[in-house]
Amino acid sequence: MRLRPVLLSMATLLAIYLLDHQWGTLPPLGRFLDPFQGFWQQAEPQKDNKTENLTLSGLRDEVIIRFDEYRIPHIEAKNNYDLYFAQGYITARDRLWQMDFQSRVASGRLSEVIGEKALELDKYHRRLGLGYAARKMEAYVRQDPQMTQVLEAYAAGINTYISGLKPRDYPLEFKLLNYAPEPWKLINSAYLLKLMSVTLASASNDAYLSNALARFGPDVIKDLFPNYPRREDPIIPSGTTWDFTPLPQPDIPPSRRSNPVEQTQAVDSEEGIGSNNWAMSGSKTRSGLPLLANDPHLELTLPAIWYQVQLTGPDVNVNGVTIPGSPGVIIGFNENVAWGVTNVGSDVLDWYQIQFQDEKRKAYRFGDSFRPTRMVIEKIAVKGKKTVSDTVWYTHHGPVMYGKGEKPKTFPKAANIPEGHAARWVAHLPSNDIKTFYVLNRARNYADYQAALRHYVAPAQNFVFASKDNDIGITPNGYFPLKWRGQGKFLLDGSQPENDWSGRIPVEHNPTVKNPPRGFVSSANQFSADTTYPYYLHWEFSGYERGAQINRQLAKLSKATPADFQALQNDNYSIHAENVRDILVKNTSLPMLSPLEKECLAIVTKWSLRYDAQEIGPTIFDNWYNQVARDIWFDEFSDTDYPMAVPSRDRTVALLAEEETSRWYDNISTPEKETKEKIVTLALKKTVDSLQIALGEKIDTWSWGVAKGTQIQHLARINGLGTATLHVGGSKTCVNAISRFNGPSWRMVISVGDVTHAMGLYPGGQSGNPGSVHYDDQVDSWAKGELHPLFFYRQGGSDSPRIRQTLTLKTKN
Amino acid sequence: MLYVALIIGTFLAQHFLVWWAMVFPCFLAGYFLAKSPSQAFGAGFAMVFIVWATRILSLSIPNGNLLGNRIGQLFFLPDWQANWVIMLLASSFIGGFIGGITCLSGQLFQKKSGISERMAN
Q1: How far is CA A481 from CA A84, A196, A427, A459, A692, in A?
Q2: How far is CA A298 from the centre of its chain?
Q3: How do beta strands A759-761 and A788-789 pair?
Q4: Is the residue at A697 inside a domain?
Q5: What angle do CA A687, A693, A694 make, to 5 degrees?
Q6: E strand intervals along A399-484
Q7: Mind listing the pLDDT tens digit for each residue in A96-115?
């Protein structure tokens, strides 16, 4: 045998092997770069075909899908099965990887495709009981034949799409992460809805508050963490009467107690996941028709959270947005009504301390006896490693998320979870939330709206509504546990039966208002109602500032137009800055300032209180206020080994506004006694220092848009697949609540009953393919605060010039 | 003949099979048609490079080179409008390199009888 050709052939095979395998986070290079099978296949032609026909098995009749210039599908089907089948098919065509990825996140199966780095996240979601919750939801929905058919049709559509794919057709991220799509199961839709509960209804600082209580005692806690804020403008206007007889309130048990819990690290919960919505009666609009607006704020990603669609069927013609993976329309309008949602931050997750009988954890104390636990072994497949088995103990409260010593030390998501406690969470309840949207999609009037809301459990939402017969209303809606006032504010003793939830607030007793005298309704995640509401929902909601600004502006309007609503969605005025700016300026000691600091003070003093992108005032003010708040509280409340809740913005502003002297102004880590003036002045000096380091010496480069640096990242944080930095205004205390990574994930303004004047857009694009022009084709308009006119297809209507492409799905039978 | 065989063979193999399937036509073309090692490597490299580059152009140009530019950033290039050219060259180089060395291997096996007998003696 000769050596040379043999060696060369072996070297060739080795080269192929190396280029066909995944090294670190890089995809297999040969496979990925190959133009015939690899990523170049996802370079989608910029010009769409005008017409396209597909024959699919599983369809019952012909379906026509018309696409407008943003490639929003307008699906017309002759029966509901085909309608949801086609929605599943077309959503998968645009967003398959996102749907797969998100359902893997929710079901704790991410490690299977991206390896060990996702293991703690997988454990977290499994231990939180998402699988338990999704399976309960699936079983419950299956008792409803109509919803079962909708979800099965939708899944069949997705699977028909997947079965037609060859590896070269796999969406880009499958190729990058080197795995293949798998068939869609009905339960995946349940997982995605439960993931919304994780995002919107799993915040909890019970452990931090318990720690603070243990250190400072009840009087301080009552003062600094009150059950109702100083400044509020509740969703249900004060003065609204409650036309029901409330259930008797549960008694506050004498045994209420909270044990301090050792923690490893504290995290700030990022405010900015919230939302705005409002509706105005025709009596206050130029057209005489009601107007409705909604902008839900979430973490902004590409592919976008939302997917736009119009569904036209025998009993429905609805237009709006939904989450890929969820059939129907979640926020939208039809020819008679429009509706929208914002989050209700009610306390629906409580922590119960569990006393196991012994180390075997087979039973736990409840009242005078022991109750058996249920052991669940979660098997987590890990790419390139052995499958991990993780044991979770379930009590009647819910799963014990982390037993003593089980909490990972370096996983920030778990930081606020107390060890040895079981989670009692509404998302674990069986629910058929999707039916709410099914009914709303077909709603004609206020009664339909109220009927739709009955099916909804979690995550609780403020459902705003308007109908063309000029009814408007808003209802903080969902399953609200019936609690004593303050129940679950602190950690609860799970061995005391009187600490359990006492059922639910009857759904007819949920706060609601219809056609209030002021002619409009609104919400921005603030308190659902004032203290006259007989039930306890939570001790703390998002700050009132956005809601107050919305109400102030809406009250001024008399002949409102959609353009007024659009302007309000983009409003950068901050009531928080209005409350605090002058206090900070007045308490600054001029002799202590350098010339540069004096210049900064002058900028803030003259500032318009608007967080506009080109303004420098908000950059200085925002950092200054945050520094003041830290300097007031952190010396007492920040302890790395013993994390505690920090008083809210409302309480901080009240302190600054109302108290000239207070023990909290003094920095306990210095020998001298600080005053309000000193703390405010020093904070300004620190702020100017840190801004110089972060943004440069020249003040005129400190514009808010640059300082904030808003960016829309890829869902899996992949380089190059997000947007560049967007220089946009707004902040979490403005109606236009754009922070660095969060903001209005969909903006919609509807002239109700006149479908030709609907407007909306979201920061993304319909296609999930980074190689498509429709991946991010709405981002620039969004950043400018524009809205796109929404095309509404009507059966038998003439073909609109906005239809760019027609896809006909034919049945194979 | 060698060049035509390489181009057609590579295109068909790549269209229907996996990314490294050009090794079959390249090896065979090298074995049956190449006249010298340098010709074999040069032709194998160049023809596969051309087939890959042409396929990339046919996909990337209608795409306005959007994706090629993004993928460049994924491989840590800056946000340039010419990233796609670098990605095209890098991709085609990988294809060309595998094509070239397999074609060369084929050619080297070709002279089996002559050389090996001489070496055996």
Answers
A1: 33, 19, 12, 13, 49
A2: 4
A3: antiparallel
A4: yes
A5: 85
A6: 399-400, 421-425, 461-467, 472-477
A7: 999 999 999 999 999 999 99
List the domain range (segments joined by +) for residue B11: 2-120
Q: Is B87 on the interface with A (CB under 8 A)?
A: yes
Asked whether the whole model's pTM tops 0.80, one would answer yes
| Distance separating alpha carbons of residues A371 and A357, to the nearest angstrom | 9
Task: Indicate the residue among A684, A708, A732 that finishes a domain.
Answer: A708
Alpha-carbon distances of A614 from A566, A567, A707, A787, B109, rounded to whole Å: 20, 18, 10, 21, 70
CB contact under 8 A, A20 and B112: no
**Along chain A (813 residues), what's the average pLDDT of each consecutive run of 10 residues?**
79 88 86 95 89 93 96 96 98 97 96 94 96 96 97 97 96 95 96 92 89 92 94 94 91 64 48 83 96 95 96 97 97 97 94 93 95 96 95 96 89 90 95 96 97 95 96 97 93 92 94 96 96 95 96 96 97 97 97 96 97 97 96 92 91 96 94 94 97 94 95 92 94 94 96 92 97 96 96 83 93 80
Q: With helix as H, strand as E and coil as C, how does chain B read?
A: CHHHHHHHHHHHHHHHCCCCCCHHHHHHHHHHCCCCHHHHHHHHHHHHHHHHHHHHHHHHCCCCCHHHHHHHHHCCCCCCCCHHHHHHHHHHHHHHHHHHHHHHHHHHHHCHHHHHHHHHC
| CATH number of the domain enclosing A629 | 1.10.1400
Nearest residue to A292 (alpha-carbon basis) of A451, A474, A546: A474
Per DSSP, the three-state class of A332 is strand
Residues of chain B with pLDDT under 50: 113-121
The sign one gets for the Cα dihedral A658, A660, A661, A667 is: positive
Those residues of chain A whose CB sits closer than 8 Å to some CB in chain B are 1-2, 4-5, 8-9, 11-12, 15-16, 19-20, 29-31, 33-47, 172, 176, 718-721, 724, 770-773
How big is the CA angle at A515 (ends A514 and A520), to the nearest 5 degrees? 110
How many domains is chain B partitioned into structurally?
Answer: 1
Does the distance separating the beta carbons of B62 and A45 come in below 8 Å?
Answer: yes
Contact A40 B59 (CB under 8 A): yes
Measure the CA–CA gap between A642 and A94, rounded to whole angstroms: 47
* Secondary structure element (H or E) that encloses residue A635, with its range: helix A617-637
A6: containing domain: 1-33
Alpha helices by DSSP H, A442-481: 446-453
Per DSSP (E only), the strands in A530-599 are: none
Beta strand pairing call for A301-302 and A713-714:
parallel
d(CA A793, CA A798): 9
CA angle at residue A782 from A781 to A785, to 5 degrees? 90
Does residue A492 sit in helix, strand or coil? strand
Asked if B18 lies within 8 A of A31 by C-beta distance, the reply is yes
Judge: A33–B91 Cβ closer than 8 Å, yes or no.
Answer: yes
User: Which residue in the set A1, A35, A773 is minimally distant from B59, CB to CB?
Assistant: A35
CB contact under 8 A, A34 and B104: no
Whether residue A771 lies inside any domain: the answer is no
B80 interfaces chain A, CB cutoff of 8 Å: no
Number of domains making up chain A: 2
Is A586 a member of any domain? yes
Task: State the DSSP code for A524.
Answer: S
Domain end, chosen from A666, A692, A708, is at A708
Residue A84 pLDDT: 98
Sign of the Cα torsion A445, A446, A451, A457 reads positive
A492-493: strand order across its sheet: A374-380, A388-394, A399-400, A421-425, A349-353, A492-493
Contact A431, A458 (CB under 8 A): yes
Per residue in A336-345, pLDDT (tens digit) is 999 999 999 9
> Using omega within 30 degrees of 0 as the cis cutoff, is the peptide bond preceding A303 cis?
yes
Q: Is residue A619 assigned to a domain?
A: yes
